[in-house]
Structures are given as structure tokens and as C-alpha cells.
Amino acid sequence: MSYLKTIVQKPVAGRQESSPQVCKTLHTVDVGGDAPHVLFIIDELCEIGGAERVLLQTVRLLRQRNYNCSVITFKIQPNLEETQQIDFPLYVFPLGRTYNWNALRVALQIRRIIREQKVSIVHTFFETSDIWGSIVAKLSGVPVLISSRRDMGILRSRKHFMAYKFTGPLYDAVLTVAPQVRDYCINQDGIHPDRVHTLFNGLEMEKIESARSRVRMRRELQIGDHVPVITTVANIRRIKGIDVLVRVASAVCAKFPESLFFVIGTRSDRQYCEELDQMVASLNLQKNFRFLGSSEDVASFLKMSDVFCLLSRSEGFSNALIEAMACRLPCVATDVGGNREALQDGKSGFLVANEDWETAADRVLRLLQDSELTREMGDSGHDIVLHKFTADVMMDNLLAVYRETLRRKAK
Questions:
Q1: Which of 200, 286, 310, 349 has its CA 20 to 30 A from that of 320?
Q2: What is the pTM of this model?
Q3: Do the beta carbons of residue 347 and residue 379 sit within 8 Å?
Q4: How far is it, in rounded angstroms, from Cα 188 to Cα 245?
Q5: Are 379 and 302 found together in one domain?
């Protein structure tokens, strides 16, 4: 029997820390039926990065496979383009501290959703959801609890490290975006290896194929075909190494003065962005280095580029990297996190050491000077994505984990 669930946000009166974000009722949708119900809990939807994109993609693809899905978040930016057209229940429960009366109230709201809607799986993203949310879910009687871990603990505080060890046994499965992250969860959090699975991100190739072509994009942006374009995709924070890319740009532009370096992503860290602007100016790269902001048409920008460059200081697994490979771009990336799992050094691009801008610049110049190598590496990267990093592969592996954990719990 189906029923309609309206997505609402319930403010807490009289508590400043819990005052609601400006948010509208997004949709009314049918969430009934006998299919398993997966409830995702994520700390916030205020900036759409890799994890947020994967969550929204996963929900949409699960619904196509007859799973019921809902999402709870504790904070939202209401004007995000990505949240305007969603067609699943999205609950926003403002949460400040996790140990006051408001936290208890939110916990009871989550408990009610889990019990009334017969949630089969709670799937968490990020620290508050992983730690506090896991305890609430278990006390609410959810059959299966799963966590997605997407980095090497770069956002954890000291208390987080302790709490992750405490809550680790609560999880029926932990999904990691790369083998390096899996090892981290086993060694740092003490989770039994049998419960930690690597689940690579997956691309929907139809979106790549439908993106605008190189010729069309360059014509629209008034960029000549002969102009070298080097692109990166990252929300702008120090961890993403954009300052290293600026140094690469200085070396590349010394030999190819017309080169353009595009950074696609939100200016997340104001102080760091100011430092980058000053650095670009000091190196006289104002005409060469462009911050384009976020875009929902990343693939079109990638298709009109010549090289993709990702010089992050730390990564879990980069969606942007495999998207560039899918667009047949040769890639230069730092050998951190899961980059090695996607990028085969010398075959689909080059891996370089963290902070080594000189080697990165050398590899970019080598690609710009050798069109045959650029084509071969681009084709190789495209083939790697087709065999290993598609959305179908990702969903098959995710559903296998869901089914197995539900089967074990049903015994």
C-alpha cells in the first residue's frame, strides 16, 4: 500500500543554534510499496562536491531499480541547483550540538521515520552522520547500517578519531571509495576487513556523450583551436593544491604564452582564494588563469580541453579524474589517495609526487608537445572508465552489498 510523504523542515523555536535554514517544501512523492527503503543521512547539502553528487546519483539510480529512498540532512543551502529537481523525500532537521535537547528532538524524529516507514538500511555520509547518526539508527532498530567513507580522515578532529573507533562495531558494512581508504578504515578505525568493501564511483556515460563538443565549446567561448587549455575541477580549498597548479601554469605559459588554465569549482575557502588571486597577479597570469565557478556542464569544459591536471594534496577517489578520462583527456595527477586506482601512470596520463610542481609542469608540456601521445593516453583513459568506473558497475556492486547485508540480518 502506497502513501504520500511531504518533505518538510521543522524548526525549533527559541533556540538560535537550531534556527532553520531557508528551505521550501520541495516535492510530494509516492514512497510506498514493498521495495527495500534506504534512508541516507548526510551532514549537509550546502556545497556540492564529490560525495554529495554521488549520494544524489545513487538515490536516483536506486529509485530506478525499485528501491525506496529518503535523505536526511542537518543543513542545506536552499538555492542549490542540484536540489531543485529532486523527486524523493528530503528532510532537513537543523542540528547544532549533538548532546542537547534539540539533538534529542532530532533523534526522535529520525527514530520515527525509521520505524514508521520501515527503513531497511540507513546509509551515512560524513562525521556527524557516521558517529551520532549511527547510534540513533541502531537505537531505532534499523536492520542494516552502512557507512560511506570517502577520504583519509582529513576532516576529523581528535574526538572524531576516538568516536569512530567506538562506533565502528555498529556498522554492518563500510564502503570506501578506494583501496587506500579501505586500508585506512581497517588500520585506523579497527573495522574488521570482512565488513569493509571498496566501491568505486561510477559515471553515467550518456551524460558524457551528450556534452557539447570541443569545436562547439571553443566557438562559444571564443577560444581558438590552437590555444592549449588545461583544466581542473575542484571546490577551491587548500587541500586541492590549486596553488601548485598556479606554479605549473607559470612554467607552461613561459613556453606556451597563450595557454589557458581553467579551474571549475566553488570558491569554498575565502582566505585561500585571496591568496590564489594574489599569486596569479604576482606571476602575471591574469590572462591565463581563470576561476570559472561551479558548473553543471563540467563534461563540456573537459571536452574542449587538452589536458586535465589534478594536483590535490589528499584525495579519497576523484570523480573529476574519471570524468576527465571519460572525456578522453590525458591526465596529470598527484599520487595520493585513490588516484593511482584510476590513472595508470604512463598509459592514461602521469602520476607525480605531492607538491612537485616542476615535474607536473614537465608532464603537461610533454603532452602539449606530443599530439599522438595525448590521443593515445586519452583513448586509454576512456577505455579504463568503460571497463571499471561506470554507474552500472557501481550500482551492481552497491546492490550486492545491500542484498548480502540484508540476507545476513534475516538469518
A1: 286
A2: 0.82
A3: no
A4: 31
A5: yes
